[in-house]
Design brief:
The chain has a single domain, classed as Orthogonal Bundle (Lysozyme), CATH 1.10.530.10. It has four helices and three strands. The longest helix is centred in the last third of the chain and has 14 residues. By secondary structure, it is mainly α. A three-stranded antiparallel beta sheet has the order 1-2-3. A hairpin with a 4-residue loop joins strand 2 and strand 3. The chain is globular. Helices cover about 30% and strands about 5% of the residues.
């Protein structure tokens, strides 16, 4: 028996495991970056995308893409967002593949320009000012 429609193509990306994501962030210099910790970034990724590389959120006038939920109004080009800036010089679709190197570069650019993680509502609403040690414990 074949079950169709359980996993729609393009809706489920790679789910990166918690400890694998910790390793990726450490390897890419996130610890101490712009006054943040790997635990901050882990909490951000959990609440923004659930560690899903293909995460997508339609906000109406703009959309958020990928594991860091990078917005089309300022950071990437999806060809549909009026007045988009594309400050990361990247197609938004590239932020939804399983290679997150370009996502990392753009996320770091965002954090650098903001001097922290305040552009991400997932971080502001769920992570800022909290004990986040559980996000990296055991990894």
């Amino acid at each position: 028996v074949i079950f169709l429609g359980l996993a729609l193509p393009g809706t489920q990306g790679k789910i990166i495991s918690r400890c694998e994501m910790v390793k990726i962030l450490r390897r890419n210099g996130f610890e101490g970056f712009e006054g943040t910790s790997v635990a901050d970034w882990m909490c951000l990724v959990k609440y923004e995308s659930g560690y899903n590389t293909k995460a997508y959120n339609n906000n109406g006038p703009s959309r958020d893409y990928g594991i860091f939920q990078i917005n089309s109004k300022y950071w990437c080009n999806d060809g549909r967002t009026a007045g988009a800036k594309n400050a990361c010089h990247i197609s938004c679709s590239k932020l939804q593949d399983d290679n997150i190197e370009d996502d990392i570069r753009c996320a770091k650019k965002i954090a650098r320009e903001a001097h922290g993680l305040s552009p991400w509502y997932g971080w502001k609403n769920h992570c800022r000012g909290r004990n986040l040690s559980s996000f990296v414990r055991g990894c």
